[in-house]
Write a structure and sequence with these properties.
This protein is α/β, with parallel strands linked by helices. It is built from 6 helices and 11 strands. The strands form 2 sheets. A 7-stranded mixed β-sheet has the order 2-1-3-8-7-9-10, sandwiched between helices. Keywords: Membrane, Transmembrane, Transmembrane helix.
């Protein structure tokens, strides 16, 4: 074998080794990223999860608002990426505890009984005005001593929460997407889909509650979302009767 042939053979071998090492490295990084994502969502391979849906206000019994359907599609894509499966349940048929399976609960307490139960038991510091009569506080959030009013199509708020039952042996989380309007429900699921890696780095597998603000949804839809603040402590603490209240009005 002359020098030219030897160099060609060595070059081919080196290229093959380099390609193999690159493939191994990419596969390792992809698997590590997938495992982190699965741990954050509580969705190991072939696991089951629940998608609890609300009903459309004023619609038929099993109607779901268009933007809530979009929210479910966002979540279904996340679940599929984790190699997991989803079962869709109407809010009034999901009569079970949580922790055995990851749960994604979509919709405010006015249209989702399951959400109302979660807020009452897990987030005692959150109150949502569900009055049917029109008024300035209709649909508003009271988080601790802070009130956040809705201005439809201009400034709307939503809560994104990842919660676990501290006293339970079951550790699968429940994710809450509680918006003041149906489009804010979709905005919240989209925010999670876009930022779950950053949230996982910051919070790990612990509980958190974030207050989001959706800006000018009548023009931008669910795409322009701001993080107002982390309200975990206020949301998980029942307020005292004498605590002052501050109202946030849309400007």
């Amino acid at each position: 074998m002359n020098d030219d042939v030897r160099n060609i053979v060595l070059g081919v071998i080196a290229a093959g080794i380099s390609a193999a090492l690159g493939w191994v490295a990419r596969t390792y990084l992809w698997r590590r990223r997938l495992r982190r994502k699965q741990a954050f969502f509580g969705l190991p391979d072939n696991s089951e999860s629940l998608l609890v849906v609300n009903r459309g206000a004023g619609g038929p019994e099993f109607a779901v608002m268009r933007y809530d359907v979009f929210a479910l599609l966002e979540l279904a894509a996340l679940i599929k990426d984790c190699n997991a499966h989803a079962q869709i349940l109407p809010h009034d048929t999901a009569r079970q505890g949580f922790g055995e399976r990851t749960e994604f609960c979509v919709g405010g307490p006015a249209s989702n009984r399951r959400m109302a139960a979660h807020l009452s038991s897990l987030l005692p510091g959150v109150r949502v005005n569900v009055d049917a009569e029109p008024g300035p506080d209709r649909g508003s959030f009271l988080v601790g001593s802070e009130r956040y009013r809705v201005e439809n199509g201009k400034e709307e708020y939503a809560l994104l929460a990842r919660l676990t039952a501290e006293r339970s042996q079951n550790t699968r989380p429940v994710f809450l997407f509680c918006g003041q309007t149906s489009i804010t429900n979709q905005a919240t699921t989209r925010y999670l889909a876009r930022h779950h890696e950053r949230l996982a780095r910051k919070y790990g597998n612990t509980s958190f509650v974030l207050l989001l603000k959706v800006i000018n949804s009548q023009a931008y839809g669910p795409d322009v979302v701001e993080l107002v603040e982390d309200v975990t402590r206020a949301a998980q603490t029942a307020p005292s009767a004498a605590s002052p209240r501050t109202t946030h009005r849309a400007s």
